[in-house]
Specification:
Strand content: 5-15%
Number of strands: 12
Structural class: mainly alpha
Radius of gyration: 36 Å
Helix content: 55-70%
Strand order of the largest sheet: 4-5-6-3-7
Amino acid sequence: MTTDEHGPLPFAPMALDVYRATGDVVGRPAELQAIGQELATARTGRLVGLTVEGEPGIGKTRLLLAAAERASAEGFTAIAVTADEELRGPFLVARSILGSAEALRAAGDARAADALARCLDAMSGQDDPGLATLTPDSRLLRTFDLGAVAFRALTAERPLAVLIDDLQWSDEDSLRLLRYVIRTDGASPILLMFAIRPEEFATVTEAVNLVADMGRMGVVRRLRLERFSPSETRAFLAQVLGGPVDASGAAVMHAQAEGVPFIVEEMAFAYREGGMVQEIDGVWTLADNAERLVPSAVKTLISRRATKLPDDTKALLAVAAILGRRFSLRDLREVRLGVDGAAPDPETLAETLAPAVAAGLLVEHEEGSAADYSFQHEQVREFAAATLTSAGRRAIHAAIVRLLLSGEPSAASLPLIALHAKAAGDAEVCVRFSVEASRNALAANAPEEVLRVVELALPSASTPEQRVGLLDARDRALDMLRRSTDRMQGLAELAALAEALGDARLGIDVRLRRAAALRTAEEHDRAAELAREVRDLAVERGDREGELAACMELGQDLLRATAGESFTPAAKEVDLDGAGEAYGRAMELARELGDVAAEAAATREVGVVHLGRIRAWFIEQVELGQHLPIAQRVAAGEVLEDIMPELEIAPAFMETFGLLHRALDLFEQLGDRRGAMSTIISLAYLNWGADIHFGAHAATHIEEIRRLTSRAKAFTNESERAAFEAQMLYGSHVFGRAKVIPDLALAKGREAHRFAKEIGDPNLEFLAAGGTAMTLLDLGDLEDAERWIDRAASVATEHPSPLRARRLETWRGIGAAAAGDAAGMRAHLERAVQQAADSGLPAARCEALARLAAESSGLGVRLADEELMTLAERSALEASELCGT
C-alpha cells in the first residue's frame, strides 16, 4: 500500500482506471439503486450509512468504486480508502481520509483547511504543546472532537461521501472516531459506506459497535451481496471481454467460478491470455479443450488467507479436501484413522478447523445437516488438496475407498468409489465399480453421469471386455443426448473391438447403432443404406434377431423419425411403402421370437404408416376438389363419423384402428408408459384427422391432441412429457403453416422453439426457429424473420450437420428473395444446391434445385432480371431431369 506522512493513501488512480475500463457494475441493480437513494438522502442534510457485505471476491470493492464515481458525478466530495490486514497504526484509516487529496481540495477556505490541519496534527501526536497536561482520555476525546469538526468542515461547500473498503481491518482509533462523528455530525450531508467481510467483521468489537450504533440511530442500510446467477455471469463476462459471450462457454466459466465475480473476471483474463477463449464472428467462444485454470490472482487470494492458519489446521484441511467439497467430522475422523492411525474426537477436530472457518475458507453447517462443513469455493478445496504430496494424496484416497467399502456400498456411492479408487491407483476397483455405476446411471436416465464415469474408467480398462462394457454405456448415453457426431467416433473403436473379439452379433449391433447415429444427424438416406446392408447380412447368416433389429432401424430411417415420435407422416416426404414393409417384417419376426417390446413398437409404427396413407388420401381429395360434397354434408349438420363408413378409405381406417389398439394393449402389458402414450396420441390423430381436414374444428382438435399429452401423466415421466409437449407444439405449427393459419403457425412455432430449447432438443429447436422464420416471411415481417433465422443458425453452428447447413442456406435464400435481394438469394440457394450435390443425395439436390427455380422465377418476375429467369429455367430443367419428372 502506498503511504505518505499521514499514512496510507486512498485507492491508487491506476487501480480505479482498471475497474472503470470494465464499465458499469453488472448484476447489482438493487444495490446501485440503494446507493442512489442514500446519496439523495445525504444531500438533504443528513448523515447516512450503507454497508455492503459478502465473501471475498463477491464484488464489494467494485460496488464501492461505482458508488465513489456516482457520488463524484452528483457533486459529492468522494473519498475512498482501504484498510489493510497487515498495516495497523493509530488513526491510520482516519488519517487516510482526512489527509487525502480529495479532502485537501474540498477544504476550500482557510477555516476548513485549519480544521483539517489541527485534526491531522492531533492524530499524529503533534498537537498544541500547551495541552500536554491533559489526561490521555481527555486528549483522545479532543482528537475525536477535532475529527468531527474536520468532517463537518468538509461539507461546508459540497456533501461528503466517505467509502472504506475492508472495514473489519481498520484500526480501533479510527473506528472510535467514526462512532463519534455519527453522534455529533448527524445533521451534516455525509454518506459513510463500508465494505465488510462478515466472518472477520464479527470478531472486531469496535467495527461491530460502529455499525450497531448506526443501526440504533436508524442511519444505516445493510446490503448482502450474493454470487452471480448464470445470466449475470454471462453479462459480466461480456463486459469484461468487451463483447457477447457464447452461452455454453459462459456456463462453463460460471460453473468453474461458482458465480464469484472476482474469480469470473480472473478466469476470463486467464483464458484470453492463454488463447482458450477467442472472438469468433463477434462472439467470444471457449475452446472445446479448455482446461480448468486457477489464475494467479485467485491463488494469491486464497494463499493469503491460508498462510496464517496453524499447521495442524492446514494439514487437516488438506485431508478434508480429498473427502470432497462437503464433509462430516465422522468421515474425517475415519479417514485420519485409516491414514495415520490417529483418531481424534469430533470436538478436537472442530477446534482444529475453527481457524479455517474464521478465515472464511470453510463454512460450518447447522447441527443436523448431512455435512458438518463445506469449502467456501471449489478453488479453496483444490488449493488445500494441492498442498499434499502425491503419496499423501494416494494414501488418503485409499483410506476413503476402504471407508466406502466397509459395508454394502449403495448405488449412489459407486461413482465415488470409482473416483477415489482411480486416484489411489487401484485400477481394478475403479473399472469394476465404474461399469456398475454406468449401468445404474443408464437405468436412471442420467446420461451425463454415465459419460463422467466412463471417461474416468476408460484409461484404466485393461481387457477388451471391460472396454466393450464402458464404450457400450458411453454410446447409449450419447444416444440419449442425441450427440450423433460423438457417437460415430466412439462406435469406430467399438467396431474394432467387436472384430478383434470375433463377436459377429456385436458387429451387427454396432453397425445398426451407426445407422441410428446417422438418423439422429438427419442423414436418413445414408442410415437406410447401412440398415439394408445389415438386414441382408443378417438374413444371409440366418440371424433373425439381427434381422429384426435391422428392420426396426430401416423403418425409422425410411419414415425419417425415431419409433414412437411420428404420428401422421407426409407421403411426399417419406417412403411409406418401404417403411411399411420393414415394420411389417419386424412385426412378424417379433412374434416368432416372442419379443413383445419389439412387436408393440413395430405394430404401432405399421399403424402410423397407415395413418400416413389415410392422410395422403384426404389431401388428394382436397387437391381434386372431391372433398366439397363431404364438407357440404358436414356443414349441413351431419356428423363426420357417420359419413366415414361410406368412404373408400374406411377399411384402411378400421385396420389402422385395430393395429393401434393392439399396440396399446402390448405397451400396457409391458408397462411401457412412453409407448402407450405415443399410441394414444396416434389414436387421437386417427379419430380427429378427418375432422382436421374436412370439419370446422381443426385448430380445436390440434389443441385437444396437445392437451392429451399433458393430461396423460400416468403414461410417461416428466422429461418425456416435456419432449412430447414440444413435439406436439411443433406439429401444431406445421399444421398451421400447411393450412395457412399464420397466427396459429406463429404462436405454436415460438412455443415449440422455447420448449425445445428448455429440454435441449437441438433438432426441434432448429426446425421450430426456421419454421417460425418462414411464417414471418409469409406475413411480411422481414426483420423478425431474420432474427429467427439467426436463432436457427446458432443451433446449426453448435450442432452441425449437412442437412441443417442445407436447410439454413435455403431459409436464408428465401429470406433474401422476400427482401428483393437477388444476389443474396442466388448465393444462398446455389450453396444449398452445391451442399446437396456434395452429400450425394439426388432427392436432396432435386429439392434444392426446385427451390432455386421457384425463388428465381419469383424474383425474376418482380425484378425483370433476365439472368435470374434463365437461372430459374435451367434449375427447373435440371431438377426435372434429376428427379425423372
